[in-house]
């Protein structure tokens, strides 16, 4: 998988369209969750984009400390359904962590993880913090990597 890292202003209109389309496909349609994906935060994000054979297959967005949480943050992590068996979730997560360290010089990262992904994020050094909560009707928990 090839990974590109871009600011919002560096994204082409086609790249942005493909990102928003895939986020909607996974978070709205696949997870049957009606929520406002276009939340005004993309302009402040660093976009981590994974391609296989020039097809968008994985994505995450990253924030510097203070732009989403007090800590640096990763969100909207996804892998296209028929590509999940290839470990691209781990690759895009590692790339997001590295992008935060390189671009924002931050070591502490906060995420709002879906409960079923706790073990996945623990494998990347995140630890659960606090109680479970509902976010857009889906069970989540805060996790921190320090």
Can you characterise this structure?
27% of the residues lie in helices and 36% in strands. The chain is of the alpha+beta class and 146 residues long. It has a 7-stranded mixed beta sheet, sandwiched between helices. The chain starts with a strand and ends with a strand. The model has no long low-confidence stretch (mean pLDDT 96).
Please state the average pLDDT score: 96
Cα separation of the termini: 27 Å
Q: Tell me the major beta sheet.
A: 7 strands, mixed
Number of separate strands: 7
Task: Give a topology summary.
Blueprint lengths: L1 E6 L5 H18 L15 E7 L2 E9 L8 E8 L8 H17 L4 E6 L3 H5 L4 E9 L2 E8 L1
Parallel strand pairs: 4-5
Antiparallel strand pairs: 1-2, 2-3, 3-4, 5-7, 6-7
Q: Could you provide a short overview of the structure?
A:
The protein is α+β, with helices and mostly antiparallel strands and 146 residues long. It is 27% helix and 36% strand.
């Amino acid at each position: 998988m090839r990974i590109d890292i871009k600011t919002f202003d560096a994204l082409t209109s086609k790249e942005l369209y493909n990102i928003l389309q895939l986020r909607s496909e996974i978070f709205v349609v696949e997870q049957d969750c009606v929520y406002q994906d276009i939340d005004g935060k993309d302009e402040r994000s660093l976009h981590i984009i994974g391609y296989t054979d020039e097809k968008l297959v994985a994505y995450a967005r990253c924030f510097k400390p203070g732009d989403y949480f007090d800590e640096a943050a990763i969100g909207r992590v996804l892998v296209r359904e028929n590509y999940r068996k290839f470990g691209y979730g781990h690759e895009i997560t590692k790339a997001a962590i590295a992008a935060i360290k390189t671009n924002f010089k931050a070591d502490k990262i906060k995420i709002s993880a879906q409960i079923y992904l706790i073990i996945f994020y623990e494998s990347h050094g995140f630890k659960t913090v606090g109680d479970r909560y509902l976010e857009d009707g889906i069970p989540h928990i805060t996790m921190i990597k320090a």
